[in-house]
Design a protein that fits this description.
Length: 285
């Protein structure tokens, strides 16, 4: 489900993109060192965003490092790490384990189960350390399955589950920033769920899987309806972000919230428009 919360590289300064990459590589390194060789396969842009937000909010000093990465042909990659890098790595494992088990329940792909099993030891370690977040993820998976089986079409309820779990993950301290930080994460989570449902719509329709957009696809204004919902979620998310006193990484974070999250959507929209144009062109022949 995750993977939409990334930068728009074309609109970033080179120095900011290099900084972002070093945080992303730092998270990758933390996953491997804390949770084993398989763990970097769960690396996500979303948890890099978590790392950047908490680093900026609490102005946490980072340590620079480097390592040779086989993915990049053995070239040295710069890394930035601090306590939030480690926290983001732990939350990555927590979310990945449950998502893999959920996928296994849905499609019975053995590879999903095997990957989940390889992360089980790491997951148990994280679950003991972060009981509140673990309980939130467990509740998220349980209710998601419940809503899917019931065919729940209440968009606020269904998408709100992802919002609620991200709220618990982003809020680390119960301090004066708990509410705006939690609300920002909540609306971001709803956006992520809706984006995922929009991207998977055709595939879910063909395989007869649950997707809350299937009944709504009949609407003449369906595309505009979805776009307006996504805009509303990100407007609310960005409004809460602007309350937070974040100076460090602020340009990168605004790039993500105001531009980066729309990269995948614009690609999907362009792809759909080309399909429609091709269909209309064939019909006119």
């Amino acid at each position: 489900m995750f993977g939409y919360v990334t930068v728009h590289k074309d609109e970033l300064k080179i120095k900011d993109y290099n900084y972002y990459r070093s945080c992303y590589c730092g998270l990758c390194r933390a996953l491997k060192e804390r949770h084993g060789f398989i763990a970097p396969l769960t690396l996500s842009y979303d948890m890099t965003f978590l790392e950047l937000v908490l680093t900026g909010l609490y102005e946490t000093q980072e340590e620079l490092g480097s390592y040779r990465c086989m993915v990049h042909g053995g070239k040295k990659q710069t890394t930035r790490r601090n306590q939030w890098t480690d926290y983001a790595a732990d939350m990555t494992i927590l979310l990945a384990y449950y998502n893999l088990m959920d996928d296994w329940q849905d499609d019975k792909k053995v590879t999903k189960l095997m990957t989940a099993k390889s992360l089980e030891k790491a997951y148990k370690k994280v679950a003991i350390k972060y009981p509140r977040q673990t309980k939130a993820v467990e509740e998220y998976i349980r209710k998601t399955l419940e809503y899917e089986k019931a065919g729940n079409q209440n968009i606020d309820e269904v998408a709100g589950l992802t919002g609620s779990v991200l709220r618990e993950i982003f809020v680390y301290y119960q301090d004066e920033w708990e509410k705006p930080l939690g609300d920002m994460a909540f609306y971001l989570g709803k956006f992520i769920y809706l984006m995922d449902a929009y991207e998977d719509l055709e595939a879910d329709q063909k395989s007869k899987q649950y997707n809350l957009f299937i009944p709504l696809k009949k609407r003449d204004d369906f595309e505009a309806y979805v776009e307006n919902m996504l805009i509303m979620m990100m407007s609310d998310c960005s409004r809460q972000f602007e309350i937070l006193p974040i100076l460090q990484n602020s340009e990168i974070l605004r790039n993500i919230l105001y531009s980066g999250v729309w990269v995948k959507y614009n690609m999907l929209k362009e792809k759909k428009n080309k399909k429609v144009e091709k269909k209309n062109g064939n019909e006119s022949l």
